[in-house]
């Protein structure tokens, strides 16, 4: 039986993850009282049973000690149950924004502030996050992108290193992305903007792509950046980093940066070791 535990920060996307697992054929149970967890798994894990995939949602709640749930999971692990833990996370800023939008009360804030509740919850979940098999930071992860990663792990059974690489194109005239970890400037390449037949196209169009990649410098840049990323990524995984934003910038974010961002993502995808998303922040701006 494949047994998955879904936990994480309140507002991090646990319900969304549970829904995705349900769509994949998992038997999903959310917020089961801690004393019933072991008994539930024993009952459902009968030889020859019809249920072969189970997902259990665990939340931090004011009415029960999360440490007890961790102890239950440890006992089950020692008893031979093979489990995978998904930890759903997001930045404090995003969690606060989501709570304000829904106007819900944080489960462990008590009479304190929302910020206090988030800080307390992070402390409670520190241990389980450290031992999680998969950590998803949904701060800038689209639902579609999360689904692609979940499919890759639980349907296609591909290797997962708990690192999602986000390749992002942007225009320097609109500012460097605030969440960028690595920033590369491709303004040294000739600008298709000044060619009439290419001006209104983007790097997603073959004509622009062929023009940009037709310069030897573009190919050299692509090789060197990808070589560096292949060197760095294992180190980031070892460090415990869960999301890396690689930002590629040109003047307006429509031509050169889009072309190179697509090319880098294509190269990384062939490696097949990391979660990968690509987006073009300024592609449609005038």
Based on CA inertia axes, which overall geometry fits?
elongated
What's the CATH superfamily of the largest domain, by name?
P-loop containing nucleotide triphosphate hydrolases
Residue share in helix: 40-55%
Would you tell me the structural class of the helices and strands? alpha/beta
What count of structural domains? Answer: 2
- The CATH class of the largest domain turns out to be Alpha Beta
- Rg, Å, rounded: 22 Å
The CATH topology name of the largest domain reads Rossmann fold
Question: Whole-Å distance between the termini?
Answer: 53 Å
Order of helices and strands: EHEHEHEHHEHEEHHHEHE
Share in β-strands: 15-25%
The CATH architecture of the largest domain would be 3-Layer(aba) Sandwich
Q: Profile the largest sheet.
A: 5 strands, parallel
Strand order of the largest sheet: 2-3-1-4-5
**Tally the helices: what do you get?**
10
**Strand segment count:** 9
Low-confidence stretches: none
Mean pLDDT: 90
Task: Give an account of the 3D structure.
The protein has 286 residues and is of the alpha/beta class. It has two domains: 2-154, Rossmann fold (3-Layer(aba) Sandwich), CATH 3.40.50.300; 164-280, no CATH class. Helix content is 43%, strand content 19%. It contains ten helices and nine strands. The protein has helices spanning 14-23, 37-44, 66-78, 92-102, 114-130, 143-154, 196-199, 206-213, 216-239, 256-271; strands spanning 2-8, 27-30, 53-57, 83-89, 134-137, 164-171, 182-185, 243-250, 275-280. The longest helix has 24 residues, at 216-239. The chain is elongated, with a radius of gyration of 22 Å.
């Amino acid at each position: 039986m494949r047994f998955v535990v879904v936990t994480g920060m309140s507002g991090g996307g646990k319900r969304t993850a549970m829904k995705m697992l349900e769509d994949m054929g998992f038997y999903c149970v959310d917020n089961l009282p801690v004393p019933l967890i072991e008994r539930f798994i024993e009952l459902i894990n009968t030889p020859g049973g019809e249920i072969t995939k189970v997902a259990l949602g665990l939340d931090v709640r004011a009415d029960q000690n999360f440490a007890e749930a961790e102890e239950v999971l440890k006992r089950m692990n020692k008893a031979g149950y093979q489990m995978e833990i998904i930890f759903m996370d997001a930045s404090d800023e995003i969690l606060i924004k989501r709570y304000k939008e829904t106007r819900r009360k944080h489960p462990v804030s008590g009479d304190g502030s929302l910020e206090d509740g988030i800080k307390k919850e992070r402390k409670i979940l520190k241990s389980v996050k450290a031992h999680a098999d998969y950590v998803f930071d949904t701060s800038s992860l689209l639902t579609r992108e999360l689904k692609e990663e979940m499919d890759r792990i639980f349907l296609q059974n591909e290797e997962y290193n708990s690192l999602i690489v986000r390749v992002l194109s942007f225009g320097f005239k609109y500012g460097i992305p605030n969440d960028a970890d690595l920033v590369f400037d491709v303004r040294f390449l000739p600008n298709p903007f000044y060619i009439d037949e290419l001006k209104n196209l983007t790097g997603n169009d073959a004509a622009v792509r062929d023009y940009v990649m037709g310069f030897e410098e573009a190919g050299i840049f692509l090789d060197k950046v990808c070589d560096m990323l292949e060197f760095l990524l294992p180190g980031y995984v070892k460090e415990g980093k869960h999301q890396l934003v690689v930002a590629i910038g040109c003047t307006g974010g429509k031509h050169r940066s889009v072309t190179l961002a697509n090319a880098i993502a294509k190269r990384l995808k062939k490696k097949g070791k990391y979660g990968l998303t690509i987006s073009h922040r300024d592609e449609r701006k005038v």
